C-alpha cells in the first residue's frame, strides 16, 4: 500500500452533494463518455459484454461473473498530480477552477462536467474501478520496459467502493497499479470497471441509441464506438459507431430555433418556420428578469408515432448532454390537438444556461427543476411553442392522412365507378368531400390497416348520396324558382341514397351468407363461431327475427316463467341461467307473435344424440295452459 494517491470522502459528502449512484449501465457509461468529451478526446471506445447480465443472482446471493467494462478515450489524460488534484477530489467545480475552466483546452468545447462527481457514477453498478491515465506535457522518462522514452506520464490506481463509502470523513489511499509512473507514447485515459452488481448491459443497438440520445452532439472530431467484448473480431454487430440521433420528421412541420452570429457582435436568435421564413410569434428563447435565455434546436412532428421512449417529445440538452425529456412541458391534459402532440411531437432543444448560474438540473440528472422560477419561465415558453406547433401542424398532418387514404383506397376511381352518370356529379363531389373529411381525421395507424380503409370507403359511399339529398332539400327550402325541377332532382337523389342504403345492407348480408357457407362445411368450426354469426345476423334463421340482446330481458323472462310454472303446476322449474355463459342456451329468439323459440346450435356434421334429444324437452307444460302461447316450442338444455 502506498500513500501516493489520496481521496477524502465520506458517505455524508456523497449524500450532501446529492450524488446519485446510477443503477443503469448506459447512464454510468454516459458519465464516463462525457468526461472523455471534456478531455478533448476525438474517440471514446466502450467495450462491454452487450446484452448480458454482469453478475448472477441466485437466492439473493450475488455472484460476479468476472466481466469487465472498459471505457478508453484519447483525450488529454491526467498525470498522477492531476489525478490527485482533480480526479480524486469529490465535488470540486471544474468550470470555476482556473486550471481547467469552462472550455476544453484544444477544441474549446463547452465542457459538460460541472460538479466533480460524475466519476463516482460507476459505483452504482460495480465495486472496483481501475484508472490508467497518461497526460500532462511530453516529457522524458522510462517506458514499461524500463527504456528511456519521451511521452506522457502515467497514473495507475485502483478504486474500491467499499473503502470509499465509509460513514465518516476519512482519507482513502487507493491501490497503485504497476503502470504507475511509466511513460507512454500517447495521452488518454482507460477506465476498467469490474466486480459488478446484478445489472444488465443493453443490447448493442439499444445501447447505441441510448448514447446517441444522451449526447445529441455530433461533430467531425468526436465519436463514440461500442464493442461487444463477447464477440470475436470480424463478427457481425461486434462494433457500432454511435451516430447522430435521427428521427424522420413529417414534411412541413419543423420549426428551427437558430443562433445567428455576425462577426464578433452578440448573437441573435430567431425561429424559422416550415416555409423557411422567420416567425414573428415564436422566439428562440425567452426573457426572465431582464435576461434573455436562448433556446436553439428544432421541434417538429415525427413521420411515425413514436415507437420508443428515447425519442418521445422534446429532448432538452445542456452543453450537448441530455438534461430532460418532456412531452408537452408539463401541460395539463385536455388541450386542442393533445393526442397528436403526445404521439408525434419530437424535438431537440439546446439550453446551455440550464446549469448556470442557477443549476436547474436535478441532482440525479434525470430532469430539470421545473418548479424553480426560471424553470417555470422555460416551461411557459415551451408550452406556448408546443401549442403553436399543434395548431400549425394540423394542416400538414391532415394532408398526409388524405394522401395515405387516397393511395390506399383509390377513392377517386371507386367513387367514379359507384356514381358514373354525368347527372351524378353532385353526388360524386359530395362523396369526395365526405371522404376528405373522414380520412383527414383518421389516425395514421388506422389508415395503414386495409380492413379499416375498406370499411371507411363503404361508409363514404353510403353517406355521399344522403348528404347530397340533404343539401338538395335545404336548397329546395330556400329556392323559389321552378320547384318541379328541384323536386325531380331531389327524387332522383333520394332514390340513389335509398339504393345505396339497400346496396350496403345487401352487400353485408351476402358477406354473412358467404361466411356461413364456409363455416358449415368446415368440420373444425366450433359452435361458438355459429353463435357469434347468428347473434350478428338473426335474419339467417328467419328474416323477421331480431335478437333479445340484454340479459336483463332474458333473466326477467326466466324469473317470470319460473313463477308462472310453479303457480300453474305446483312444481319447481329451474331454467338454465342465461347470464352464465356456460349454461346459456345457444340462442333465444323472439318473433313478433308472442312465441319464444330457443335454438340449439351444433357444430357442422354433428348427429343429434339421444341424450341431447332428451335434454331438448325437459319442460312439459300441462296440456291446458291457457295463457301460454299454444305453439311454444321450448328447447332448453
Ligand atoms: N477521461 C478523463 N480524462 C481527463 N480528465 C478527466 C477524465 N475524467 C475525469 N477527469 C478529470 O477529473 C475531474 C473530475 O471528473 P468528474 O466526472 O468527477 O467531474 P466533472 O466532469 O468535473 O463534473 P460532473 O460531476 O458534472 O461530471 C474532471 O473535471 C477532469 O478534470
Ligand atoms: Mg464528469
Report on this model:
The protein is 34% helix and 21% strand. By secondary structure, the protein is an alpha+beta fold. The chain has 4 domains: 7-242, Histidine kinase-like ATPase, C-terminal domain (Heat Shock Protein 90, 2-Layer Sandwich); 255-392, no CATH class; 396-521, no CATH class; 527-637, no CATH class. The strands form 6 sheets. Strands 2, 5, 6, 7, 9, 10, 11, 12 and 13 form a 9-stranded mixed β-sheet that branches. Strands 15-14-18-21-19-20 form a 6-stranded mixed β-sheet, with helices on both faces. The chain has a 3-stranded antiparallel β-sheet with strand order 22-23-24, covered by helices on one side. The model is unreliable at 619-637 (pLDDT under 50). Residues 35-36, 38-39, 73, 75-78, 86-87, 94, 100, 113-119, 189 line the site of adenosine-5'-triphosphate.
Strand content: 15-25%
General shape: elongated
Ligands in the structure? adenosine-5'-triphosphate, magnesium ion
Flag low-confidence runs.
619-637
Radius of gyration: 38 Å
How many individual domains? 4
Structural class: alpha+beta
Mean of the pLDDT scores?
84
CATH hierarchy: architecture of the largest domain? 2-Layer Sandwich
Reported by name, the CATH topology of the largest domain is: Heat Shock Protein 90
CATH superfamily of the largest domain: Histidine kinase-like ATPase, C-terminal domain
Report how far the terminal alpha carbons are from each other: 88 Å
- Binned, the helix content reads 25-40%
Helices, by number, come to 16
